[in-house]
Amino acid sequence: MTIEVEAIRAGDTGGSADPGRAASRRGRRWLLPLLLVGGWLLATAWRVWLARHASMPFAHTDEDSYLNTARALAGGPGGFSSENETLRRIGYPLLIAPAFLLDRDFLDTYLLVRVINAALNATVLPLAYLLGCRLLGLRPGPALAAAVVAATLPAVAFHATVAMTDAVLGPLLLAWLLAVHRLVDRPGPVAAAVCGALAGAAHLVHSRGVVIVAGFALLALALVVRRRLGPAALLAAVLPVAVAALGNEAGARLLGDTVHLLGDPASGNAVRALTSVRGLSQVLASVGTQLWYLTVVTFGLAGLAGAEAVTRVFRRGGAAARWTFGAALLTTVGVAVGAEVVLAGVPDRVPDAIYARYVQVFAPFWMLVGVGLLFGTAYRPLLRRIAVTVLLLAVGGALIRLRLDHAEAQGARLRWGGFSAPDLMALTDGWRQMRPLVGSAIGVAGCLLLVLVLATRRPAVRTGLLAVVLAALVVVNVATMQVITQRLIRPLAVAGTPVPSVTELGVRPPERVAASTGVRYQLRFNLSHQVTWTEVPWFRDRPPADAAVVFARWAPGEPGDWDGARYGFVRLGGDPQRQWAAWRRR
Fold first, then answer.
1. For the chain, how big is the Rg over CA atoms in Å?
2. Do 198 and 176 touch, CB atoms closer than 8 A?
3. CA distance between the termini of the chain
4. Tens place of pLDDT per residue across the chain (586 aa)
5. CA distance 420 to 63
6. Residue 203: alpha-carbon gap to chain centroid
C-alpha cells in the first residue's frame, strides 16, 4: 500500500517515476512568471526610453499642477494647480511625492517621477494577462500574446511619458475589472473590499473615478438585491470608497492655500449641454467620436469587443463575465459622456473635434477582448461582429467629416491639438487637421484582414496567421509610439526646456525668485520647476519687493521687452531667441 501511494504521489501508477518529466513540468511552471516579470521590466524600460527627450515637463499645465501638488505633499514649497475645488484630486500627486523627498535637482526628481510612471503603467501587461485568462478563458500562450498587444498600445504607453494621472488609470481600470469579475464569481467580504478599494483609488486619482464608483455602487446594489452580497460584504465594499473620498478631502484641506487653484468652477454651460437640443447633440456627437476613436486605434478590434460585450450582457449564463462586460460598457460610455459634459461647462472653451484622453484608459481592455475573440470563437459570430464594426466605422467616419465641415462652414472650426489623440494623429498623418475618413479606412482595413485570416479552414495555418497578425500589431504599436516621440514629444520638450538652466545662471537657495507673465508659459513653468527651494510667484511688470531674482521677457527692440535696470536688477543671462532672461537685484 505504501509503495502504491508513493507511486501515485510521484505521478506514476506503474513503473518508476520519470525525474526528467517532473523537472520539465517544474521548468514550465516557472517559465510563465519569468516571462511576465521579464515583460514587465522590458515594458518599463521601453516607457522610460520613450521619454528620453523630455528631461522637463511638456504637457502643460496638467503636469505642472500634479508636480507642484506632489512637491507640497512632500513638505516642499507650493505652487499653482489648474484644478478647481470640485475636480481636485490628490491620489496621483501622493504616488509621485516620494520622488521629491530626496531633495535632488529637479531634473533628477522628474526622471524618478517618470520611472515611477513607467513601472506602474507597465503593469498593464500582467493585469491584461490575468484578465485574458479569467474573463476570456484564454490559455496562457494566447493570453500572453493578447496582453503584449494591449500593453504596447500608444493610448496607454504614451501617458507613461508625462506626469499625469492617465499613467496609472489604465492599469487601475484593468485591476478593478479583474476585481469585479472575482466579486461576481465568488462574492465575499475580501473580494468586496478589494473591488471597493480599487474603485476608491480611481476616485482618489481623477474625477473619472466617480463613474467607476457609480458603476461599482450599481453592481453592489444588484448583488445585494440578488442576495449574493451580505451585510458584512456590503460594509467591506462601501468602507474603502468612503475612506478614499474622505482621504481626498482631508489631503486637500491639509494642503490649504499652499497650492493655489487656478481652475474656474463649472458654469451653467454643463447644465445647458444636457437640457438644450444643440448642447445635447454636441455631447452625443462628441461621445460617438470618442467611441469611434477607440475602434480606429485598435484597428477595429474594440468594435468586435464592444459588439461581443453587448451580446454577453443579454446572454444567460456566465454571470461573472456578463457583469464584468456590463461594468466595462457602463464605465466606458459613462466616462465619455461625463467628460464631454464637464468640458462643456468650462467657460469660453472652444469645442474639440475630439478629446480622447479621458477614454484612452479603456483602450487596453477593449483591445485585449478583441484579440481574445480571435481565439476559439466560431467564424460566423465573428463575421457578424466584424460586419457591425465595419458599418459603424464607415458611418462614424462620414458623420465626423460632415460635423467638421459644418463647423468650419459656420466659422467655428473645432479644435484639434497634440494631446487630443496623439495616436490617431500618427496613424492618419493628421498633424494639422483631423482626418476621419483615413481613420475609418484604417479600421476597416484591419477588419478585412481579420476576415481573410479567420476564413482559413486549416487550424494550424490559421493559428500561424493569427500569430503573424498579433506580431504585426505589436510592431505597429511600437512604430506609432516612435512617430509620436519624434513628431510630438521631442519638439515640445525642446521648445519648453530653458537653456541655459537656472543652475548654470548661478541662481541658488535661499534666493527668492519670481517670474514675469511676459515669459512664454512653457518656459516660465519649467524655469519655475528648477527653483526647488521656494515658490515662484508671477508678476506683470513690477517684481515683488522680496524677489532677489526674476525671470522676465527678453525681446530686444520689441514691445514688452523688460528692462530690469529700472528696478535695480542686473541681467544674469538667458536666451533672446526664446525671449527670456534672468535678472538679479543689485
1. 27
2. yes
3. 97
4. 333 333 333 344 444 456 656 655 666 678 889 999 999 999 999 999 999 999 999 999 999 999 999 999 999 999 999 998 888 999 999 999 999 999 899 999 999 999 999 999 999 999 999 999 999 999 999 999 999 999 999 999 999 999 999 999 999 999 999 999 999 999 999 999 999 999 999 999 999 999 999 999 999 999 999 999 999 999 999 999 999 999 999 999 999 889 999 887 766 667 777 777 888 888 899 999 999 999 999 999 999 999 999 999 988 878 999 999 999 999 999 999 998 888 876 766 778 899 999 999 999 999 999 999 999 788 899 999 999 999 999 999 999 999 999 999 998 889 898 888 999 999 999 999 999 999 999 999 999 999 999 888 888 888 899 999 999 999 999 999 999 999 999 999 999 999 999 999 999 999 999 999 999 999 999 999 999 999 999 999 999 999 999 999 999 989 899 999 999 999 999 999 999 999 999 8
5. 16
6. 14
Q: How many residues does the chain have?
A: 586
Q: Are strands 538-539 and 513-516 parallel, antiparallel or unpaired?
A: parallel
The C-alpha cell at 109 is 526628481
**Beta partners for residue 79, in sequence order:** 259
Is residue 78 helix, strand or coil?
coil
- Helix/strand number for the chain, H first, E second: 24, 7
Delimit the domains of the chain by residue range: 266-460, 513-585
CA distance 304 to 415: 29
* Nine cell digits for residue 412: 467655428
CB-facing half-sphere around the CA of 500: CA atoms within 13 A:
11
CB atoms near residue 317 (< 10 Å): 7
Strand, coil or helix: 481: helix
Task: Using alpha carbons, list the distances in angstroms from residue 349 to 48, 64, 344, 416.
Answer: 33, 20, 7, 13
Question: In this structure, are residues 52 and 489 in contact, taking their beta carbons and an 8 Å threshold?
Answer: no
CB 136 within 8 A of CB 370: no
Q: How far apart are CA 519 and CA 583, in angstroms?
A: 13
For residues 341 and 275, give the distance between their C-alpha atoms in angstroms, rounded to a whole number: 11
SS3 call for 6:
helix
Burial class (CB in 10 A: 0-12, 13-18, 19+), 107: middle
Bond prior to 265 in cis (omega within 30° of 0): no
Which residue blocks in 87-123 are alpha helix, DSSP H? 91-96, 98-101, 106-121
Cβ burial of 554 (10 Å; 0-12, 13-18, 19+) is buried
Q: Which cell numbers in the block locate residue 10? A: 510521484
| Closest of 163, 173, 87, 86 to residue 127, by C-alpha | 173
C-alpha cell at 494: 525642446
Instruction: Please count the CA atoms within 13 angstroms of the CA of 346 that sit on its side-chain side.
Output: 15
Q: Model-level pTM? A: 0.93
Widest distance between CA atoms in the chain: 102
Q: How distant, in Å, are the alpha carbons of 79, 162, 192, 467 from that of 304?
A: 46, 31, 30, 18
